[in-house]
Amino acid sequence: MLRVFVRYCAKINRRGQAARRGFVRQSTSWVIAWTAAAAIIFGAIAYFNREAQETARLDLERDAIAAANKGQDESGPIVAIIKPTRLNQEKIKLGRALFHDQRLSKDNSISCAFCHDLARGGVDGLARSIGVDGKTGDINSPTIYNVSLMSAQFWDGRARDLEEQVDGPIANPLEMATSWDEILIKLNLDDELVEQFEDIYASPPNRANAINAIVEFEKSLITPSRFDRWLLGDDSAITADELKGYNIFVESGCAACHQGAAIGGNMFQLFGVARNYYDGSRKTEKSDFGRYNVTGREEDRYVFKVPTLRNVELTAPYFHDASVDTLYEAVNRMGSYQLGVDLDEEDARQITLFLRALTGDELR
Ligand code: HEC
Ligand code: HEC
Question: Measured from the CB, is residue 267 less than 6 Å from ligand 2?
């Protein structure tokens, strides 16, 4: 009797196992089927979405090219700028003071403004900047105006944003050659300054709030020009020659790289697209390698952030290596090395006139 019962139990158990195996098999195939179906559905959605995005991107590009070719379309390659109004005035004031504060350098000899002189187009006018102990830098100093409009900082774009950028000059042995530890000791000894920080940040100076103030100040350095007024609809804001220059600038292809709100600053490009700039006739240093120094990729050698052309009239000498003294010459070099054309004299002159119309009203 007992054996019958045991065998019966075993049979039930086997059946149960079989059933469970069956269930497992069945549910496994369901899971596989559903996963496959979901994968196909999501895959299709992703595919069509990507395709839609790609189409939208191409549309955008086509529109941009069409607008660029038309020359003076509202949706043209250059975006008008206006002075920002939502910034914190107290922070700007503090940031401006820090920007001019020599305590930000090792021996209290130089400030940010030393190399980014606000009265000189935001540059020092030198081929190579001079840092503490008279050390010379390795690259031309770019303007501090409109830097917040750029999608990366430095010629090689090694800083993603302005916050990240500030540490660069402070630590650079050829520039301020110091550290936040040293700077903060000095700043925290200044009762008046500490009070200012306390009022704004409810804390004494530290790296984060000092950078925050400097960046707020930098964001205020936006320089609308006559050309922006023209973009916004004031036909009389620029002269006929400047307008011709703008049209040539767009039609000949300059605006393919120098575009957007900063008229530059939103892409990386090879220096020497149409003609090899580094053909062996020039001595190269590490700073000439551009974006290669950041990525280590061979295709990034001699690739630079396209510089802003706002206030370019004031920022000679030109190019990362300061190899050209006049704007007219810089325009000609761009025609030849980036576009593969020898601009005729009149065209180059008119482009130069257009570029001069980009000088901010308050910098004139
Ligand atoms: C000794 C001269 C010197 C000093 C001092 C200096 N800079 Fe610069 N700055 C430069 C040079 C040169 C570059 C370009 C470096 C590069 O791209 O590798 C630069 C680049 C920049 C850029 C990037 C601009 C762009 O178009 O990519 C910003 C922003 C900037 N500096 C802000 C500052 C601030 C803020 C300070 C003070 C904390 C400062 N600089 C101090 C010389 C200087
Ligand atoms: C393929 C992209 C591209 C095109 C097209 C192009 N540029 Fe440039 N431009 C650059 C790059 C990159 C630099 C920085 C090169 C360097 O210094 O290494 C630059 C630099 C300049 C500078 C010097 C700015 C400074 O502050 O040193 C001027 C001026 C200029 N371009 C004007 C023009 C004009 C005018 C045209 C049309 C004739 C033009 N560019 C076409 C990419 C381009």
Answer: no
The CATH number of the domain covering residues in 89-219? 1.10.760.10
State the span(s) of the chain assigned CATH 1.10.760.10. 64-82+223-363, 89-219
- What CATH code is assigned to 64-82+223-363? 1.10.760.10
The atom of ligand 1 lying closest to the CA of 308 is 26
Characterise 310 by phi-psi region: left (phi > 0), alpha (psi -120 to 50), beta (else). beta
* pLDDT, average across residues 249-269: 97
92 within ligand 2 shell (Cβ under 6 A): no
* pLDDT mean across residues, the chain: 88
Q: How do residues 281-295 score in pLDDT, each as one tens digit?
A: 999 999 999 999 999
Q: Please, what sign has the CA dihedral across residues 78, 219, 162, 100? A: positive
